[in-house]
Amino acid sequence: MHEVRGVVVKAKNEPATLETILVPDPGPGEALVDVLTCGVCQTDLHYKVGAVGEDFPYLLGHESSGIVSAVGEGVTEVAVGDHVILNWRAVCGQCRACRRGEPWYCFATHNATQKMTLEDGTELTPALGIGSFAEKTLVAAGQCTKIEGELQDHQYAAVGLLGCGVMAGIGAVLNTGAVKRGESVAVIGCGGVGAAAIAGAALAGASTIIAVDLDDEKLATAKKFGATHTVNSTEQDPVAAIRELTGGHGADLVIDAVGIGPTFKQAFEARDLAGRMVLVGVPAPGTTWEIPLDEVFGRGGSIKSAWYGDTLPSRDFPMLVDQYRLGRLDLDGFVSERIGLGDVEEAFAKMKAGTVLRSVVEIAPAPEATR
Known about the structure:
Keywords: Membrane, Metal-binding, Oxidoreductase, Transmembrane, Transmembrane helix, Zinc. This is S-(Hydroxymethyl)mycothiol dehydrogenase. The chain crosses the membrane at residues 156-174, 186-214. InterPro entries: ADH-like_C (IPR013149), ADH-like_N (IPR013154), ADH_Zn_CS (IPR002328), ER (IPR020843), GroES-like_sf (IPR011032), MycoS_dep_FDH (IPR017816), NAD(P)-bd_dom_sf (IPR036291). It is an enzyme of class 1 (oxidoreductase). By secondary structure, the chain is of the alpha/beta class. The protein folds into two domains: 2-164 and 310-362, Quinone Oxidoreductase, Chain A, domain 1 (Alpha-Beta Complex); 178-305, NAD(P)-binding Rossmann-like Domain (Rossmann fold), CATH 3.40.50. It contains eleven helices and 18 strands. It has helices spanning 42-48, 96-99, 156-160, 165-176, 192-204, 216-224, 238-245, 261-269, 293-299, 313-325, 344-353; strands at 2-9, 17-23, 30-39, 58-59, 63-71, 83-86, 117-118, 125-126, 136-140, 144-146, 184-188, 208-213, 229-232, 251-256, 271-279, 302-305, 337-339, 359-362. The strands form three sheets. Strands 3, 5, 6, 9, 10, 17 and 18 form a seven-stranded mixed sheet that branches. The chain is globular, with a radius of gyration of 21 Å.
C-alpha cells in the first residue's frame, strides 16, 4: 500500500483539499502510475459541484502523463518504466460497439478494480476512473497509452492534455466531423476545447477556419492555433458572418463547443447544404433546442455529438504526439500555467473566470512509502 498526497473533494461544493491517500499495489490487469502532470479540466469542476454524481469523496484529476511503476498479473500493454498518457477509454474488446469495429464507442470501458482510500479506509471515487491529482494512481492497464520516443521533461505537461479536453476538441474535428483538406470549418466557443478544435482543423488542412466567441482575447488565442477569421458574436450575427466568409453558403463543418440551445441552433444554421455539425460542448442537464423538422430534412447533412472526440487512444495519441514533435500541433500553447498540487482550488477559480486555457499541475515524484 502506497501513502501519497492527492486532491480530494469530500462533499458537494466543498473546497478541493490536499489529503493523504492510500494506493494499493496493482492487481490483475492493473497498473500503478507515478503521475508527472495533470491538467485542471472542466470535468473535475463538474465532479466538485456534484454535476456528475453523488459518489463523494472524489479523487480529482484525469488529464495526465506519468510513468508506470508497477503492473499486475496479465498486463502486456505496458511495462514498468514506460512513459504514458492516461485515458478514460480503456476499451473492453467484447461489447457490441467493439465487436462491430467501433471501439471508440466502447460501452464497457475498464477501470481499476481495487479502490484507493483515505487514511481511515474511506473509499475514493476516482474522476473518470483515473484520479490523478495525486503522486500515484491506480488504473486499468488499458487506461495507459505508451509514449514512444523521447520527450523533454517540460513537454509531458503538454502531451498529458490529450487525456481529455484537447483530445475532445481535436477529435471532434478529425474523427467525428471527418474534416477534409480544403474544407471550411467554423468553431463556436473558443475555450480550451474550442481552441483544440481549431488546432485540429488546421492540422487537417482546412482552408477556412472561423472562430466565434464573445471574448476578443479568446479570439486572439484562436488565431494562434490556426483560425483564419474571427467573429465576435456580440458585434455580428455569427450565422450571417460565417455565411459571408464562406461565399454565402455556410461552413462544411460547424463545431458547437459551448453546448447551449442558442449555439446549437447557430451551428445548425451556419452549415452549408449537406454540411455537418458536431456538438462537443457538454450541455447542462435539461438543455433543449427547437429546430423545425422540415429544416432538418431540407438542409441534409448530419448532426452528431462527439463522445471524447470519438477517440481511440491507442490510435490517436501516438499520431498526435508525433505531430507535436514535428511542430505541426502546438500542444504547448494550451498550457497557461504550471502549478502544484496545493493550487488546484485556485485553478478552478481561474477556470471559471475564463483567464486560462489549462492550468497544469506538475507533480514531483513521491517519496516511496508503503504499508
